[in-house]
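Weekly modeling sync, notes
Attendees: S.R. (lead), two postdocs, one rotation student

Agenda item 3: backlog of single-chain predictions. S.R. asked that every request posted to the team notebook include the full sequence so nobody has to chase files. The rotation student volunteered to paste the first one in as an example of the format we agreed on. Action items at the bottom.

Example entry:
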Amino acid sequence: MDLVKDQLSWEQFKSYSEKTKKPLKKVTEFNRLIAHSKNFFLISGYGAFTDGYILIISKDFIPSYGLIKKNEIEEVKFLIKLIKDFISNKYDRKTVAFEHGMCACIGGLDRAHLHLMSVSKNCNQKNVKDAINQVLYNRKAGVKYIEYNNYKLENLHDINQIYENHKNTEKIKIVGDIMKINDIQNLPIKEWPMVTLSHITKGGHYVFFDSGDEESSFLTIHNFQTQFGREVVFEIEKLLDKKFYSEIKKLEKSNPFVEIWRWQNYMFEKKIIKTIEDASKGFKNLQKKYHQDFKKYQFQII
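Predicted structure, as returned to the notebook:
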């Protein structure tokens, strides 16, 4: 039996970067490398519906940031700061960071990967909270199952159908309540990632979402479906960007049953290529500002 290919393999990204011609014309599996440091590497992410979408991935094969070494945390914080600075300078936008720890998001073999996505500079605490609550509602997070006509329904699609159309009838029993952001702020956000260690060593998952504001951020051990952070950013952009909302409505009209925020459904290839080009230039422009950090963490731009 063949092993499942490691879709976030540092070795593969490094190898492809050495033979990839620039400027990039087409996105392939391992040609999205932007830069790397001593223990991590940066790639442009699939499903780039906002500018400057970058993933920070561990070179070591570990499934979660909760398992990285303590002496690597400062390196991660530097990379986050660098990317936020680049996004602010280039796009005049804010940045959110998120991770679904222990998710096996790629489908089996996986490495710790932190997402950084840009959001409108006008995004505020209420916008983020509203978007998180909307995604919790979309996923009926907190509803364990629904009993309907003596059937126990646990599939999200079934729960959505019954909840939306029949929730006021006496024929159904809803077990559990839809959560709000306050219900999922159950680990200290400032202590990510090490505070998750005791939970994940027992086989648990966690979701980390940092908006830059503690009140609209969370770190939770509730096990949501993957791509929660991407869906939150999607809801924020729909709310604040009229052009984006118009483009999304066109895509939804052509294929109403496909969730656009899922990277498997829409790659947004042009934005991926643009982010690679922009970030490479943007990081070079920040070399003087972060000279000591570039040297300390062996940061190299591809």
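Discussion: group reviewed the output briefly. The longest strand covers residues 94-101.
Action items: rotation student to repeat for the remaining queue; S.R. to check formatting next week.
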